[in-house]
Amino acid sequence: MANLSQPEATNLAAGQNPPPEQQLQDHLDDHAFSFSPNITLKKLPHLSDYLQDLQPAGPNPLDHNPFFHPSDGFYVNKSDIVLRQVACRLSPSETIASPSHHLAYIRAGPRKQIFFDHCATRAAIVTCGGLCPGMNTVIRELVVGLWDLYGVRQIYGIKAGYRGFYSIHPIELNPKMVHNWHGRGGTVLETSRGGFDLTKIVDAIENHGFNQVYIIGGDGTMRGAVKIFEEVRRRKLKVGVTGIPKTVDNDVGIIDRSFGFQTAVEMAEQAIHAAHVEAESAVNGIGLVKLMGRSTGHIALHATLSSRDVDCCLIPETEFYLEGKGGLLEFLEQRLKERGHAVVVVAEGAGQDLIPRTTAQKEERDESGNMVFLDVGAWLKTELKKWWDREHPHELFTVKYIDPTYMIRAVPANATDNLYCTLVAHSAIHGLMAGYTGFVTGPINANHAYIPLADVAQAKNEVNIKDHKWEWVRSITNQPDFVKSNQNSV
Ligand SMILES: Nc1ncnc2c1ncn2[C@@H]1O[C@H](COP(=O)(O)OP(=O)(O)O)[C@@H](O)[C@H]1O
Ligand SMILES: O=P(O)(O)OC[C@H]1O[C@](O)(COP(=O)(O)O)[C@@H](O)[C@@H]1O
Ligand SMILES: [Mg+2]
C-alpha cells in the first residue's frame, strides 16, 4: 500500500460537515484524481457517475462513535492506493524511484463522507455457488458492521442464492440473530447454483427497496454480479452493488486469495496425512487423495507444499499420462521400489481428458452451466489396480483412495480466514457507504483494495507452472513433467 503525499482536497476536522455542494465537489475531485504518470489508478464506478443530483448524506458516523476516535490517517482518502505489483524487474533505464509503470487500486476502508443515510439504507445479502469456509462469518460481519458502524437497521438475507431474490421472501437480520454464525460451516442463508434471471433479480431489488446489495460468491457469481450492477446502472437506481469473492478453489484473479482457502488447505493436509499413514502401513501401498479444484490446482499445490508427504501432485494446469516412458505408472513403480509406498494428490479437474466418457457425459453441465467432471480419483484407482495386476500379479498392492471433497469446504473458517472475513465484510460496507458501486473488495499484496467487479469477473487465477511455487512442488515430490515430448525418466 502506498500513501502519496498529495495535498488533500479538504481539511475537515472530524465531525464538521461542509455544505453538500462542497462535499460533492470534494468527492468528485477524489474520484477523478490522477497520480504521477507512472501510476495508473484503476477507476472505480461511483453512484455519482450516473446519478447527477446525488448528494452526500454527511460525514461518516464513525466520527461520533464512542468506540472509534478517528485520528489523522484513520479515513482513507484519494492518495491511499494499493500497488498491484510489488515485486518487479526494472529495465536498465529505470530506477527504483521511478519505475516505468505501476497499476494501482483504491485502498479499501472508511471514507470521511458517506452517501447513505442510516435510516434510508436497506441492505440485502446473498450467498451463491458452492460452499466455502467463512461464508457465515462474512454474513455475520456484514450485519454487525452495518448495524454497529453505520447504524443501519434494515438488513435482509436473501435465501438460496440468486433465485431467492425473486422466489423467496427475504429474512430480516440483526446482530442478535447472527452473533454465533461465525462458528458454523456452510451458509445459514443457503446457496444454490443456476436461477440467474437478471430482470427478475433487479425487479426484486427495486420492489423490496434495497439500495445496497452484498453478493458473496465465486467466479460465476461475480459474472452475474457485473450484470446486476450494469442493469442497476442502466435503470439509474441508487443501489450500490458489491461482490465478495468466495472460492474454495481460489480461482478468482487479482486478489491474493479468497477467504476459506487456508482452512481448506489445512483440511486437505489432514486427508493427505491419513493417506500417507495408510500407504506407509501397507506393502506397496498407494495413498490417493482427490482435492477440489475445478480448473485450478491451488488447494492441491498448497496442501502438497505444506504436507511434504506427497510423491506426486496432479493439477488441471499440467497434463499427465499413465503408460510408457516418463508416464505416471513408470514414476510410481520407481517410487514403490525405492520407498515401499507413495502418495498421489490429484485435483478434481486434472486428467479429465484421459477419462473415457460417453457423449451424454461430455455434455453434462450443472445448473450454473459448469461442466460436470468424472471422478478422476476413482478412475485413477481402477487404472492403478489394473496396472499392478498386469505387471506384478503375485505381489501385494493396495490403493487407499480418500475423497475429502465436502469435508474440506463444509467446516467453519480457521482463525486467519475468520480475520480475513471480518476485514473483507467491513471493507465492503465502507465502500458502498462511500457511494462506490460495481466493485469487489479483496487483498492485493496483503492490503485490502477496491477492484472493479468487471475486472475480477474476467480474471482467472490459475497456477502458474512456470513460477517458483510449482518449482517447489517439484523439488518436494521430484515428480517428472509428464510432457510426452520430454522423454526424461525419473
Ligand atoms: N456468466 C454468468 N452470468 C450470470 N450469472 C452467472 C454466470 N455464471 C454463473 N452465474 C450464476 O452465479 C451463481 C453461482 O455460479 P456457480 O458457477 O455455480 O458458482 P460460483 O459463483 O461459486 O463459481 C449461479 O446462480 C449462476 O447461475
Ligand atoms: O457439488 P457441488 O456443490 O456442485 O460443488 C462442487 C464444486 O464446488 C467447488 O468446490 C467450488 O466451486 P465454486 O467455487 O465454483 O462454487 C468445486 O471445486 C467443485 O467442483
Ligand atoms: Mg466457480
From TrEMBL:
Its EC number(s): 2.7.1.11
Active site: 249
GO molecular function: 6-phosphofructokinase activity; ATP binding; metal ion binding
Binding site for Mg(2+): 219
One of the protein's GO biological processes: fructose 6-phosphate metabolic process
rRNA-binding among keywords: no
Residues that hold ATP according to the record: 130, 193-194, 218-221
Residue span(s) of domain Phosphofructokinase: 122-430
Modulation of this protein's activity: Allosterically activated by AMP.
Cofactor annotation: Mg(2+)
Keyword annotations from UniProtKB, A to Z: Allosteric enzyme, ATP-binding, Cytoplasm, Glycolysis, Kinase, Magnesium, Metal-binding, Nucleotide-binding, Transferase
Pathway: Carbohydrate degradation; glycolysis; D-glyceraldehyde 3-phosphate and glycerone phosphate from D-glucose: step 3/4
Reactions this protein catalyses: beta-D-fructose 6-phosphate + ATP = beta-D-fructose 1,6-bisphosphate + ADP + H(+)
Residues at the site labelled Important for substrate specificity: 220
Domain of life of the native organism: Eukaryota
Chain intervals for the UniProt region annotation (Disordered): 1-25
Localization (cell): Cytoplasm
Binding site for substrate: 247-249, 292-294, 348, 406-409
Quaternary context: Homotetramer.
Family: Belongs to the phosphofructokinase type A (PFKA) family. PPi-dependent PFK group II subfamily. Atypical ATP-dependent clade 'X' sub-subfamily.
Name this protein carries in UniProt: ATP-dependent 6-phosphofructokinase
Protein source organism: Gossypium schwendimanii
Biological classification of the source: Eukaryota, Viridiplantae, Streptophyta, Embryophyta, Tracheophyta
Encoding gene (name): PFK
